[in-house]
Amino acid sequence: MTAPQDQLNELLAQSKATSFLDSTFATYMDDRDPLKALRSEFVIPTRGEIAPGIDHPDESCIYFCGNSLGLLPKAVARYVKEEIQVWGEGAVNSHFKHRFGRPWVRIEETVQEQSARVVGAKKDEVAIMNTLTSNLHTLFAAFYTPTATRHKVLIEAKAFPSDHYAIESQIRWHHLDPKDSLICQEPREGEFLLRTEDILETIEKHGHEIAVVCFSGIQFYTGQYFEMEKITKAAQAKGCIVGWDLAHAAGNVPVQLHDWNVDFACWCSYKYLNSGPGGIAGIFVHERHANDFDRNRLAGWWGHDKATRFDMVNEFKPMSGAAGFQHSNPSVLTTSALLGSLSVFEQTSMQEMRAKSFLLTGYLHHLLVTEFSKDVLDIITPTDPEQRGCQLSLIFKRGKMMEIFEGLEARAIIGDERKPDVIRIAPTPLYTRFEDVRKFVVELKDLVAKIYN
Ligand SMILES: Cc1ncc(COP(=O)(O)O)c(C=O)c1O
Q1: What GO annotations for molecular function exist for this entry (predicted)?
Q2: Which atom of ligand 1 is nearest to the CA of 268?
Q3: Distance, CA of 73 to CA of 44 (rounded, Å)
């Protein structure tokens, strides 16, 4: 893809705007945005709802927090309401007879194919089940099989704490000590990002004793999009299993789990996939493991062969593919919420979203580096657009982050803060306008002038 800055320069000339901060430019970009219609598919909180007493209370707030909780797609209400109706009318019979054609006994299949498209997988490589940390445990139970000589797990030093806890507990589960069996990849002194070359060096040096390499696709704090294909290939060449936590990547960047030969992956659906708080999560198991029935797995009746599931026999016969890793009958309400949110993704593609995201986050990046001095704010997310998704993580200097954060919220601009000094800003392409980014920068300039004076 052409570098966003080159595209933006060309578009600035076409727009006839005087500068990138000129509203003519943002309007020009929004008018030609191929995804612009999708914004109306979402419920966007108003300024008044976010900051009571603010002027223009009925206008939309500026929402940059899809990296934490995506906005509510209007379709979700419809799908959930239908399930409540069916529950009321049919009760238990709705497992098999469903007026909208979604019998609950197969409800997870309604979201399987669309989820697979989002993560670049084949349908049978994906199962929609549980929640993220539970799925990480499920996958580790199957894929982490330490031996005396190959017992280590390689993760990021600053992995999301839940992943760190889960993986440490998996190591202990095998009566091993994380002090000996966990390798945490640290950034270099004074740096925030992990250099691919350093990760590859660790793999080269320790690969023979590493059982599993498990990183996040996109780092939650820095927004770094790891070079997934390269890391997967290098680790597998050393005989390691490679898994990815795609919490911040699914629905944000077009990953290709199948083609990149990833062993396993998991993700949640409440961030960029907009399925609602605590939404149902997903797993990927590469098709080459589809019939690997000797692998230990945590069994449950929903992973059992569909043809005999209701025969209630004691002999567990797992289904082929990711479906064979399911445990319980899934939550119908959260699955139907995901179905509603995926109906928006079906109107576009991850490639089209990425093309807009490149420009939108590129625009934000450009404005931040040109309008603010580095002794006020610095961006720790990679400058290279290929190595980030939509999120930029901004460090506010001199202990002023919370003041800035609260000031933004008072102006109905929602990002999120990570103490001590980072605000994460994620202009998600499905519902964010160029004008939102421009207004944010204008408001931030005003706040900075007041707070840093
Ligand atoms: C990278 C990552 N892993 C794990 C989690 C935990 O997710 P859950 O509470 O859904 O298990 C999160 C939550 O934000 C996350 O960002």
Answers
A1: kynureninase activity; pyridoxal phosphate binding
A2: 10
A3: 9
Residue 161 counted as an annotated binding residue: yes
Inform me whether the pLDDT recorded for 371 exceeds 90. Answer: yes
Q: How confident is the model at residue 298 (pLDDT cuts 50, 70, 90)?
A: very high
Domains of the chain (ranges, CATH numbers):
4-63+350-452 (3.90.1150.10), 79-345 (3.40.640.10)
pLDDT score recorded for residue 5 = 86
Task: Ligand 1 pocket test: pick from 131, 133, 135, 215 the residue with the most ligand atoms within 8 Å of its Cβ.
Answer: 133
User: What is the CA(411)–ligand 1 centre distance, in A?
Assistant: 28
Mean pLDDT of 177-198: 98
What radius of gyration do the chain's Cα atoms show? 23
Whole-number Å distance, alpha carbon 216 to ligand 1 midpoint, is 10
Mean pLDDT of the chain: 97
Binned at pLDDT 50, 70 and 90, residue 222 comes out as very high
Q: For a pLDDT cut of 70, what percent of the chain falls above it?
A: 100
- What whole-number distance in Å separates Cα of residue 360 and Cα of residue 354? 10
Taking only the tens place, the pLDDT of each residue in 22-55 is 999 999 999 999 999 999 999 999 999 999 999 9
- Looking at residue 169, what is its pLDDT? 98
How confident is the model over 168-178, as a mean pLDDT? 98
C-alpha to C-alpha distance for 254 and 335, rounded to whole angstroms:
22
Do residues 348 and 279 lie in contact, with contact meaning Cβ atoms separated by under 8 Å?
Answer: no
Per the annotation, does 160 bind a ligand? yes
